[in-house]
Amino acid sequence: MRLGSFAAALAGVALSAVAALAQQPIKPAVVYDKGGKFDKSFNEGVFMGAEKFRQETGVEFRDFEPTNDAQIEQALRRFARDGHSPIIAVGFSQATALKKVAAEFPDLKFTIIDMVVELPNVQSVVFKEHEGSYLVGLLAAMASKTGKVGFVGGMDIPLIRKFACGYVQGVKAGKADAEIFQNMTGSTPAAWNDPVKGGELAKSQIDRGADVVYHAAGGTGIGVLRAVADAGKLGIGVDSNQNALHPGKVLTSMLKRVDVAAYNSFKAARDGGWKPGLSVLGLKEEGIDWALDENNKGLISPEMKAAADKAKADIIAGTVKVHDYMSDQKCTM
Amino acid sequence: MSAAPIELPRWADVALVPLVSVAAALLVAGLVVIGIGENPLEATALMLRGALGSAEGIGFTLYYATNFIFTGLAVAVAFHAGLFNIGGEGQATAAGIAMAFACLGLSWAPGFIAVPLAILAAAAGGALWAFIPGWLQAKRGSHVVITTIMLNFVAATLIVYLLREVIGKPGSMQPETPDFPAQAVLTPMHQLLAPFGLRLPPTPLNSALLLALLSLFAVWLLIWRTRLGYAIRTVGANPRAAAYAGISPAAVTMVAMAISGALAGGLAVNEALGVQHRLVLDFTAGYGFVGIAVALMGRGHPVGVGLAALLFGVLYQGGAELSFDKPAITRDMVVVIGGVLILFAGALDGLFRRLVAGVLRSGRSGA
């Protein structure tokens, strides 16, 4: 099992030895963001990770889906007062609330995903999405026959530009003169859940000649992948492994393992290795990866796989540097 | 407003019909809870305890009620002039925009200048946004139901543009303004009451509640104790008779809509100035629409609006606690329960009026 081996790798052999001796009773909890638990993407990933932890260890966890901003703080505080720890806050929109609540309960452990909160009892988990986007960009350039590829983003925020920027760099690395079409679905949270518009954007990119389209658009991306599959072109999924949505029509998926982040936070707290501070998960930490399974086996030629594996090794070794858009709000290469 | 109003004794009109509506709604909601395999009595107890059983619960309940008082009053005032203002969301959004400009521009000012000016800006923004449909109704005959809801969309688009391009916080993931200056926000209730020896847990409840209670009284004063209020009620009852009596229905329409919009602006005061201390997208979160149900249930009277706002506050806070304690009852289920309540209190009101009238009549003839 990949997840198991990863957890072991991250926790380290020494830690697992300690774990066998001293397992601590924990009361974990999750507060999702307003997208809700079953969003087929980000929140659901956290739920899957927590659920996996529950199945493995038998430790129950509590969770809550807030409907407005006031409830985020309310739920965090409720869980904290009942002594829950670690408490996972999902998504950048919880940062303000978490700052307040974590300061009030210095003895409890908090984990926030996709955002950095600097407090001595908060673990901030962010991802190097640009590294994974680079790899799928490279694969897109090699799979494209027209030399034109597309990108459909969800809401136009720095995080999504980070995906786009990594993708562009990967495409250029695969084919220096490739043409890249970029579209964002919108500038409000509604852009995460507009599959019809996502599909239209993908179609317009295909009309302009694109034959591989990568999406980083949450629920909107379901429409992107469908439109691309209907047109007989190739899509690229994001966050979770979306290869199976349209087998043979999804080139690969850029994996962002929020499930691993959630699982690790719980597991480390139980085994006594939980640490506050910034935790950046990239290719090296296996928090980011690209998906290869039986659904896209036929699409990835041996040369493509070799190129992607080499790029991955180079990024991990540091010989290839992928520029992070969010470091300077620019996409220069 | 119906063709043949059903005459009821006053006590039945103001108390019995709303109570029967709420009871019927709770009954149906109870059936829904049974349907998903939970005990409705236990659920009700959890809900009430969550909303009213602790200082924190009461704080949240009153915080929600503050929102509903403002939006309920906004709908109620327009009702008295025979207008159906369903644009509370848009008017609150416009109010929030005006207030954000005021707050961000007043960072030099001390609190006792900045806060009143920010509240006035909110009232002015809401009033302007409601005055437009009022003017269109009065001068062009465009129906306010259509124009107010259309302006909701305009306001929603405008705030997106402004938060992204003009007053947004640079580099932020969310469309939101920078934090308002610390002196230019409302005091949370737990800090306000601390000097009096009351130690309250921190809740979003803030001094906007006092403004809401003041608004309840001011609306009562306006509608029943002033010439303008008399004019508003007259136009609402019969515009032609009002015109015959020398009252201009057009002027009253515009003024009533502006007052209605200014009251809806209170939602922005509570949410942005009182709780979040910045302007975020979608801060109206549907409170404007719930205000319609609050006004209907409160029969347009400030006392009724206050009580209905409290009921919806209990429903919101108790509902959150319910879905917190009972994982089987999801937040969507809480929306269903709220929806049933709105349906019975608002849309099916006539059903119970007829029923109550029938029962009362047979009771009287039997005696």
Automatic annotation (TrEMBL), chain A:
Source superkingdom: Bacteria
Membrane topology: Lipid-anchor
Keywords on record: Cell membrane, Lipoprotein, Membrane, Signal
Transmembrane segments: none
GO cellular component: plasma membrane
Listed Pfam families: Bmp
Signal peptide: 1-22
Classification via InterPro entries: BMP_lipoprotein, Peripla_BP_I, PnrA-like
Domain ABC transporter substrate-binding protein PnrA-like per the UniProt entry, residue ranges: 29-316
Subcellular location: Cell membrane
Family of the protein in this entry: Belongs to the BMP lipoprotein family.
Descriptive protein name: Basic membrane protein A
UniProtKB/TrEMBL annotation, chain B:
Entry keyword Membrane: yes
UniProt keyword annotations, A-Z: Cell membrane, Membrane, Sugar transport, Transmembrane, Transmembrane helix, Transport
Segments traversing the membrane: 12-37, 57-79, 114-132, 144-163, 205-223, 244-267, 279-296, 303-320, 332-352
Pfam families noted in UniProt: BPD_transp_2 (PF02653)
CDD domains from the UniProt entry: TM_PBP1_transp_TpRbsC_like
Subcellular locations according to the entry: Cell membrane
Topology with respect to the bilayer: Multi-pass membrane protein
GO cellular component: plasma membrane
GO MF assignments: transmembrane transporter activity
InterPro entries (UniProt xref): ABC_transp_permease
Protein name listed in UniProt: Simple sugar transport system permease protein
Organism of this sequence: Bosea thiooxidans
Taxonomic placement: Bacteria, Pseudomonadati, Pseudomonadota, Alphaproteobacteria, Hyphomicrobiales
